[in-house]
Hints:
alpha/beta, eight-stranded mixed beta sheet, 8 strands, globular, disordered N terminus
Amino acid sequence: MGNANTKTASASDARGVTIRPDEAAFFADLARDWWNPKGKMASLHQVNPVRLAFIRSAVDAHFGSDPLAIKPLTGKSALDIGCGAGLVCEPLARLGADVTGVDAAAENVSAAAAHAEAGGLDIRYMAGEVGTLDIGKFDLVTCLEVVEHVADKRAFLADVAARIAPDGLLVLSTPNRTAASRVLLVGAAEAVGYVPRGTHHWKDFVTPPELDELLAEVGLEVIKRRGISYAPGKGLHLSDNEALNYILSARKA
């Protein structure tokens, strides 16, 4: 499996197209800056440890791995959908997983492959619609801050569910559609440059009940859900407050 392995899927495939070209182009323009912790994607670098802590806890709970194990995903396959430049793929690989990353933007895939190769990590990266790629099923599927960017959420989540092995695990995160998220995640965050202007479209955010229903429609049940909150002196952290953002684990129903 080569680090620079990329594949582009045709948008004219018979399956429904879930990728919005304008969204793919927007994030493609950020590819070169993705790994700069003080650059335009700084917010992802700040939230990544919080998301990874939830993933690790979900993995240990679902697969029965030792919380102290260095590589709890050894012998397991993992797929990160909407992988960007690999901020989640690389930690999953270090946890022992055989990792595949898929992204709508070929520029992100190229940046991810180059970064993985420089770090000596063997990660397969592919560009295109996850539903059109011949990549099989995975023990762990992650989909972080992606569902709010797709054109057809039902079709997209059906494609996500199709990639989960029968005894597999899904971890998904997304912003909540609340008054607070409209003011803080869209208005304030973009105004002060915390996230690039145009990153979020509030009407596309999904509430937890809406997402629960969509997941149930594709045969998945939520195991656990936590909010991702911010507090002065504590920074971003997992909490019971889901007003801004939340992350969940799910399995086949």
